[in-house]
Amino acid sequence: MTGKEEIPGVVVETEKSRDITISRVRIENEEGEKALGKPKGYYVTLEVPRLREKDPELTEEVSKKLAEELKVMINLPVDSIVLVIGLGNWNVTPDSLGPKVVEKLLVTKHLLEFMPEKFNTKKGIRPVCALAPGVLGITGIETGEIIKGVVERIKPDFVIVIDALAARSIERISTTIQISNSGIQPGSGVGNRRMGISRESIGVPVVAIGVPTVVDAATVASDALDMMISEFERQAKPGSEFYKMLKTLNIGEKYQLIREVLYPFVGELVVTPKEIDSLIENTSRTLSGGLNLALHPGISYEEVSTFLQ
Amino acid sequence: MTGKEEIPGVVVETEKSRDITISRVRIENEEGEKALGKPKGYYVTLEVPRLREKDPELTEEVSKKLAEELKVMINLPVDSIVLVIGLGNWNVTPDSLGPKVVEKLLVTKHLLEFMPEKFNTKKGIRPVCALAPGVLGITGIETGEIIKGVVERIKPDFVIVIDALAARSIERISTTIQISNSGIQPGSGVGNRRMGISRESIGVPVVAIGVPTVVDAATVASDALDMMISEFERQAKPGSEFYKMLKTLNIGEKYQLIREVLYPFVGELVVTPKEIDSLIENTSRTLSGGLNLALHPGISYEEVSTFLQ
Amino acid sequence: MTGKEEIPGVVVETEKSRDITISRVRIENEEGEKALGKPKGYYVTLEVPRLREKDPELTEEVSKKLAEELKVMINLPVDSIVLVIGLGNWNVTPDSLGPKVVEKLLVTKHLLEFMPEKFNTKKGIRPVCALAPGVLGITGIETGEIIKGVVERIKPDFVIVIDALAARSIERISTTIQISNSGIQPGSGVGNRRMGISRESIGVPVVAIGVPTVVDAATVASDALDMMISEFERQAKPGSEFYKMLKTLNIGEKYQLIREVLYPFVGELVVTPKEIDSLIENTSRTLSGGLNLALHPGISYEEVSTFLQ
Amino acid sequence: MTGKEEIPGVVVETEKSRDITISRVRIENEEGEKALGKPKGYYVTLEVPRLREKDPELTEEVSKKLAEELKVMINLPVDSIVLVIGLGNWNVTPDSLGPKVVEKLLVTKHLLEFMPEKFNTKKGIRPVCALAPGVLGITGIETGEIIKGVVERIKPDFVIVIDALAARSIERISTTIQISNSGIQPGSGVGNRRMGISRESIGVPVVAIGVPTVVDAATVASDALDMMISEFERQAKPGSEFYKMLKTLNIGEKYQLIREVLYPFVGELVVTPKEIDSLIENTSRTLSGGLNLALHPGISYEEVSTFLQ
Fold first, then answer.
1. Which of the 8 DSSP states describes residue B167?
2. Which domains does chain C have, with CATH numbers?
3. Does C149 touch chain A if contact means CB atoms closer than 8 Å?
4. ipTM score of the complex?
5. Is D305 in Cβ contact with B309 (below 8 Å)?
């Protein structure tokens, strides 16, 4: 716990350990909304630069930290029903995070119904159900409509949505986990989902968990340019006309300029790390580990691991 | 067109070509229901013994015949919305037929909405949408509930359900396509689905398409025994005590006897041909070919094939 | 350790625990070869009826037992090179056992060469390499030729061959692990491999590990018939003409008879359990667990498990 | 046919159509080797900017053009044996091009041996065999050693090697096909293969076919910077200190600078387009189409397509 900044309408808290930095941001009113450009709500980010290394011990630590944060957000008795939605396209590797997480969940709603002596809330097992609804190009149906239909029918107490995100910076790819109770914003995912999913749109509290898995080529270039400018500044001749000009461009302008210049050559090139298959595998294991711990208080990490095999 | 049998309340019609036998059965009243042990409705079966050979020309022929039969069953203007549901578990090869068919469909509902100049009903393109809802063990939700929720939300005019079936005879595996407008019967699928899906349960007309992909070991044994008895009878000494006894057993008893005897050794062993991966691939291609032709009157087999690549 | 039978030229030993029966058969001379119809050599079979249940604790126990048996068979210093060959076709689920095992091996030969400070024989890490050569239909090359070429080039001290087998009885599917130092017999695998692989054919000691994953329909029928005959005998009228006749047929004849009768209806139908995807997954985990323990004496089951994730 | 440039020791020829630009470069002596920094040999590049659009007609056109170029390079009677090697790691999507091409080849060597009446050179069917040897991390064996072992054993007349490449420019990803008879250079592939594969190293003529599928983040940034400089130059004030400085950096220096600046933030980040799954699918189809046509003169594109289904 290292600090509490003071932006009006925003409460920020940061917690650092060797490998994980957790920041918790609460946007409390319209003033805060304007300052941060996001709707009111509670936002938690886990930054784990070494997550890309796929170290099993770190995976375990991150899963446990994630579970703690999720428990605070969800905060419901163990008998309330949770529906987990894995957004994204299972045929597009960097967009397959949501479906891959759902595949590794301890889905139990039917077990509590049909085998109540073995699976019940007294053993700390919650009724959890899950769905990977696919994407518009696969189903022809707006994903939000499928979710609404299922939510209306099975009436869960809580919905958790998992999505692969487009990063605004290359360093964030597969290294940050973003959680919020303000839902999924339209167009933030890898596949440019059109609809938002939030408490307002589906009538049930929603927590969204996202991990950036792609970045567009213009962002890569823009990030590199920024780093070069900083580097030049640090090294040398601060008066030169070169970064005088570049520094006068604000971030948005520079990014826009790069996009326009790149476009004729590569179009809307969105890229992902070469190792994306194993990154998705490891990230989905980390998220499902955290979800299984958070949702089923009676199940240990070891039991979850055995199950995941 | 070779015949019309006379069971009260049942109209039967058979059409044979070199490779395909089509039988069309209409059960018209309760008398017919009792006689055949199935609910009222229209049942079409395509028997294609050579379908297991994966001959591309035969695949084309069967797809076209299937399309003709489906057109009769569906019989709706080109602007009515069809929802195709691929039942089954994509992680269990012999149960993955439904999801595999859905993957190869020309899904168009969103295209007609967002690119109406290119995709429209005047070009013979129907609004088609599709869903592979998974199975109870994956979602924790009764599949019928997911379907009801989605149907209520998007209000299609017609629902087509695809499922892999348990065969009652080894010869039928991957060689027969069964279509009916009476819906899916509970427990008929590979995964023993609990709920039926029919016009009554979801409020929209339903056509079910099924292909047997598994058979239980007791059926294999029972079939073999029947064939041996016939063979013995054909060859020899009709008075022997041997088949006297066996012939006194009716089919149900014999099957039950074999099940009981086998059970302690192999449990409820359900088997599938060794080549099931390629059989499912070829069968799903055949079914999706037929569906694409039946649903989009403006699209040719060649266009569908190109798309399927 | 429960017994030692006396067939001339054959030494048999059996060890039973709750879930696992291990039989070790040593065929010592030509007399023994004739009696058992197999070449001279050491044959170990692990029978684990509950292996189909995919219980993680049992998987661990079987892996450890397998490792012990393999260590006796291989019996080489830790610096000798072992090449593991995963036979079979990765596109045919029941034939994909070998490639799946290879995928889960701790392959280390290159690590000992390039990172000797971290990976070395003093830490109990052996130089292991592996290959899944594919099958004739995929490569156009006799698999034995690929293996010979690679063996001649890299000169391993020992070769281990993994293969999916055709069972001679339905109960054995995915419940028995067969190990021998007499190599792979031609035609015993799921894909009817033409060539044998043995010390004689490739010039290096060979241990073969096989697990039955398929059975032909005639075997299913024949097994069922045998069980019915035993059942009838047990229950009743031992003098009847029925099993008098059936009992006069020896096993080979009966099987042949059933094959001939079935053939016109189903051809050479070879079947596999419906759950074959998860059976192959679990069996490959069990075998690779055992191999990793046997080959690398310095690595524990827990480390192997973590790696397998 | 549009030109013939004059670099000593180098013959260049360019052919343009609407969608495809083919350049053929022959490096004839040491002078040419020095000028182009590549070994003597014949290099053909197909540039197809629209290849990323996955248009089936363009796929067909490119396959046919590729076949023509390959026929010139291979130029062997139909009865000579060709071995096709698909390099790369099938578990890493952008590195799986080689194995995916091999999967779609008409492999025939065994058919000519076992069914000579149906498959023979008089029908224009060549004996083709194929192998996907995996990568060092999977096998523990240098891939070149596996290839040498197999080549020595089966003695093909010609070897074709397929590999996914690291691009030196983002525009080239999945849009250019590079062919040469000088073999594969070490370290040019996605997975940084250590060994080269060439006529010298394996004793048989080699043609290498490569398609760029990845690019490193520094290249993306460097390309973007170059484009921005050109754009600034084109638009404005050519005297400014800004591009004076940047223009004084040569390409190598600039790239090196960016790498150094980026490294602390993202390491050796190598990226691939988000759509890599479908790009690999389409590219492998294009290459295997070209190979099948080039190798089997008696088989038409339509027959190949039917087979590829």
1. -
2. 10-218+269-307 (3.40.50.1450), 219-266 (no CATH)
3. no
4. 0.90
5. yes
